[in-house]
Amino acid sequence: MSNYSIKNLEEYFQLYRKSVREPETFWEEIAEEHFVWRKRWTKVLQWDFSKPEVTWFENAKLNITENCIDRHLHIRGDKTAILFEPNDPKEKAQHITYNELYSRVCKMANVLKDKGVKKGDRVCIYLPMIPELAVSVLACARIGAVHSVVFAGFSAQALSTRINDSDCKMVITSDGSFRGSKTIDLKGIVDLALEECKGVHSVLVAKRINSEVKMKQGRDQWLQPLLDKAKATYTAEVMDAEDPLFILYTSGSTGKPKGMVHSSAGYMVYTAYTFKNIFKYQENDVYWCTADIGWITGHSYIVYGPLANGATTVMFEGVPTYPHYGRFWQIVEKHKVNQFYTAPTAIRALAKESLDYVDKHDLSSLKVLGTVGEPINEEAWHWYNNNIGKHKSPIVDTWWQTETGGIMISPIPYVTPTTPTFATLPFIGVQLALMDEKGEELKGNQVEGRLCIKFPWPSMARTIWGDHKRYFDTYFSAYDNKYFTGDGAKRDAVGYYRITGRVDDVIIVSGHNLGTAPIEDAINEHPAVAESAIVGFPHDIKGNALYGFVILKEIGESRKQENLRKEINQQITEHIGPIAKLDKIQFVPGLPKTRSGKIMRRILRKIASGDTSNLGDISTLLNPEVVEAIIEDAQ
Ligand code: 6R9
What is the pTM of this model? Predict the structure, then answer.
């Protein structure tokens, strides 16, 4: 058991050294002692980053749901696996035990099988944060189908692109969703999306908001009656270690979203091991991650990591601000939450409000606090530490990505001394490198560069669905034999890492990754628009907000321009979703470009953040005169 739970700093360093010196032995021991396998592996690791090809636990057989559910039944069958807290505090919470989860997942698995879903088929899940979402994910895994969860805030167009990219046969959705005081017509969005998706033969619809929806004959069916008739047992499909478990889309610097493909065995081992140590989960703790399962954080640290450890994991349907700013703290008190994991943007939004919302609640159950998704600023860190953790719950600032599958840099609570805004040390097995502009690795401390990873870890994505070349080009071509993260980082005097932010064209808004290219594509489709460029600028709550510089085909009068601003945001909402709306739109006569025609975003970023004092050398621009004009008019 010892390697599975890290007790002090010395042990961390010892294990870290072992994981670097003998990575195969290290991971083999973890895999052997803490998981159930149908068949043992023949080789722990094979890798070649020049292709890139990575295989963990080659030839092993397993089913992740046997590890997340079945093996717990005889020891903790009556323990709550999923604690569902609805959007409306007046609606009762649901405690779904491991026994119940088993039968719900098996019933769902039988429904999927009956509808013709086979091992390897892709199933799109477009559901709000209701138990059916976790159940559908696990049911896919149980029958060996590859789930592709699409966050239920994405538009019809974003949904259809994702469905078509991975050729999904089926969509699981609901009539609608509750979000704070609003309801969202999810089924309507699916109907619209499916006009573009010829490969989808069936749609299963969970009932959540009891709205009137149109059901297309021969394609759409209500889920519940099918579940009622289904058998409550299902023998798990035997999967190969490297069989894809799921696809999850993430934004890229260029147009199309990237369908990151995750494996079965490596993903399971790494998410379970990180969960146990980074949240210091103890039997009977109640753990709550506020993310949505539509993002990687929800996959790894609401569903798979916690359940593989037999944990009680809270699933919250609502938003932090409804019906009031104390909703999170009310839930912590109500369910006596021990580990609480959220995003800096939520902390900043709540920190703006009166402390009464916090102080009304007993938060003494909390033992560990976590953050993820973007760099946490010092002020938010202290607010979290003072008012939520009361200086007694360590904050784990966890850095990782959709691509990494699990947490890569983080303190270990009660083990690693924390420093505000530092994600601190690499997790066991994670070999980081900082690279300079010339492509050399920066050795020693007190250096800053581009963050890379130079050795495989079990939960790394294996490819981009349908485009292995893009996988290589995006992550493995910048530096020989290294995975490039897209982030910049500093290593301080004691070897702690601080993430400085993206160095590519991805902008993180409220913790959501947004690529500039798809937003620009959406804007450019407006008939009045000639060209556009999006940059991020600092925002108190969202971390970054979006600033659009737009060239119109004709400069109209200002009233018309106001309407255009609305239409442009409407266009973005339709193409991507409301999360990508622009905070500011400036109509400009031109965009600063290099002689090779590349937009100089560096200059636009400075203008957007109001810092025009030092724009650097603009003499190399094709059109330096537009810079003056843009500055004059900047908002
Ligand atoms: C898990 C997740 C990944 C990008 C990543 C980085 C940023 C995430 C962070 C952080 C600073 C942290 N990021 N955690 N930056 N400190 N603790 O968020 O995955 O949605 O793919 O985003 O988020 O820029 O590259 P994903």
Answer: 0.92
In the chain the domains, ranked by start, together with CATH numbers, are 9-489 (3.40.50.12780), 510-633 (3.30.300.30)
- Give CA–CA dist 566/582, Å, rounded: 10
Strands 368-371 and 339-342, bridge-based pairing: parallel
Band (pLDDT 50/70/90 cuts) for residue 254 is low
Cα-Cα-Cα-Cα torsion 479, 480, 481, 483, nearest 10 degrees, comes to: 10
Which residue puts its alpha carbon closest to atom 26 of ligand 1?
Answer: 401
Tokens 């010395």 correspond to 10
Within 10 angstroms of residue 201's Cβ, the number of other Cβ atoms is 14
Cβ neighbours of residue 169 under 8 Å, at least 6 residues apart?
Answer: 116, 117, 121, 122, 123, 199, 200, 201, 202
This complex has an ipTM of 1.00
Query: Could you give the CA distance from residue 530 to residue 318 in angstroms, rounded to a whole number?
Result: 39
Structure tokens at 371: 């953050």
Query: With contact defined as beta carbons under 8 Å apart, do 384 and 347 qualify?
Result: yes
| CA of 570 relative to ligand 1 center, distance in Å | 27
Cβ 434 vs Cβ 452: under 8 Å: yes
Q: Does residue 143 register a pLDDT over 90? A: yes
Other Cβ atoms closer than 10 A to 99? 17
pLDDT on residue 561: 86
Q: Whose CA is nearest to atom 2 of ligand 1?
A: 401
Pocket test residue of 249, 275, 508 for ligand 1, highest count of atoms within 8 A of CB: 508
What average pLDDT is seen over the chain? 95
The alpha carbon of 511 and the centre of ligand 1 are apart by a number of angstroms equal to 7
Helix or strand (DSSP H, E) at 108: helix 98-114
**Looking at 15-92, which runs of residues are DSSP E strands?**
43-48, 53-58, 61-62, 80-85
Strand partners, 123: 147, 170
Q: Whose CA is nearest to atom 5 of ligand 1?
A: 401
CB 343 within 8 A of CB 395: no
CA of 412 to the centre of ligand 1 (A): 18
- Lowest-pLDDT range of 124-133, 420-429, 608-617: 608-617
CA 515 vs. chain centroid, Å, equals: 14
Q: What is the pLDDT of residues 430-452, one digit of tens each?
A: 999 999 989 999 999 999 999 99
pLDDT tens-place string over residues 397-413: 999 999 999 999 999 99
| Alpha carbon distance 364, 367 (integer Å) | 8
Cα of 453 from ligand 1 centre, angstroms: 15
Ligand 1 atom index nearest CA of 501: 24
> What's the 297 CA to ligand 1 centre distance in angstroms?
10
pLDDT tens across 324-382, in order?
999 999 999 999 999 999 999 999 999 999 999 999 999 999 999 999 999 899 999 99
Rounded Cα distance between 584 and 534, Å, is 10
Confidence of residue 1 (pLDDT cuts 50, 70, 90): very low
323 preceded by a cis bond (ω within 30 of 0): yes
Give the Cα-Cα-Cα angle 27, 258, 193 (nearest 5 degrees): 130
What is the structure's pLDDT at 558? Answer: 66
**Who lines ligand 1 at CB under 6 A?**
250, 295-297, 372-375, 397-402, 423, 485-487, 499, 502, 508, 513
H/E element, 139: helix 131-143
Nearest to 423 by CA among 453, 384, 397: 397
- The candidate with the shortest Cα–Cα distance to 370, out of 402, 334, 399, is 399
